[in-house]
Amino acid sequence: MMKRSIVWAVAILGFASVAMSATVGVVDIPLVGANTANYGQAITSDGRYVTGTAGTATGYIYDNSTGVSYTFNRLSDGGRAGQKGSGIGYRTYNGENQLVVHGAQAEGHDAIWAFNLSGQPVSGAWGANQHWLQAGECANISTGTYNTMALKGIGFDEGYTAKSSKTNRNVLAMGYITGASHVGWNESTAGKVTGNSVSYTGLAGVQKPNGSGINQAFTTLYSVGGSFEGTAPSSLFAMAADGSRVFGYNPTTGLSPFMATMNAFGDFQATYSMPVLAWATGQSLAYGATVDGSYAVGTNYSAATSNKAVLWDLTDLNDITVLDLTQWASDNNKLGGFTVLSKASSVGVNGDGQLVITGFGTKDGAQRAFILTIPEPATLSFLALGAVALLRRRR
User: How far apart are CA 172 and CA 167, in angstroms?
Assistant: First the structure.
């Protein structure tokens, strides 16, 4: 049943003509321009497209089906160049299927670009007749780093963004995307607030310090304009696109990643502890999840190994597992020239049920974005997994 629900979600959210299988293993995302480093920051629900940053100020889109990276801007005049891509997804607007990117423009402000999927990129960038959307409050808005936008998908024209104010960090901003507009609101709160995650149902996951200065996790629904619901001291960094699950960690130890289920009103329900690898001694957290939250990706940390990318399998909440992605790829001769996969930031599911993960690691001494495709998770047990690579925590 779980497998069917994941495939169904991809069919709804993905672009029907791009369902594909991919070679299992790690490939590096090509650089754009003269940049020597790049980072994968968000992936579409079907694993087809990745967006991120090359160097320090060049946004890019990578097509996993062709292996080509592109910059993006407002092609009508070459303006509004993307400096960063932090969210990506699909929608249908006026009968046109579009790829939509959320990030920062050349002026350093929050912005959205929507591209006709039937068109072709030209001159190293996405082609003409594109739609550029800008939030009314964008001049003082800073986007987050990973998965800052969630769209309902092909056949729908709605979605949301979550971000924070650059000039007054006591302000949370959310944006509602529909048609040619990106309409937002700002909500003032007590204490520095950071918007880290969002769902296509209009639920945002945020964090702000409590009276003792320790971050506390909150959720807020766009429809009620910023009514916060909080939980015990914790930080939220990821959310299932359907709003059913959020992911965070205990900021006092960094060693207590968790997943919490949510109801339709954005209220916390049950909370589940997520295991860490045996060597982890520092901050361990999830940055991204599949549409329904059955799988999450992120990092585990220790002083000896630094950050290493991991995958959590939450299909059985009584037996949540964590996988060291560097170790798995190394054991199966699938590292593709990388020495370590440092951070996994976003994950999709392709048409064959394979998980497609993006993030960044080290290759030839530089920080490089990667795409990692692994088999349908149910088949992982048939592959050569090292004892360190897979741990189980039974509840």
Answer: 11
Residue range 279-333, pLDDT digits in tens:
988 788 899 999 999 999 999 988 887 899 999 999 999 999 999 999 999 999 9
Strand partners, 28: 370
CATH code of 195's domain: 2.130.10.10
Residue with tokens 């940055």: 287
Host domain of residue 126: 2-394
CA trace torsion 117, 121, 126, 132 (10° rounding): -40
Q: How far is CA 325 from CA 53, 356, 386, in A?
A: 22, 12, 11
Q: How many CB atoms lie within 10 A of CB 321?
A: 18
| Alpha-carbon gap, residue 337 to 235, rounded angstroms | 34
How many structural domains compose the chain? 1
Q: Which amino acid is at 311?
A: L
Helical ranges in 205-267 per DSSP H: none
pTM: 0.85
Question: What number of CA atoms fall less than 13 Å from residue 61's CA on the CB side?
Answer: 31
Q: How far is CA 127 from CA 71, 92, 335, in A?
A: 10, 18, 33
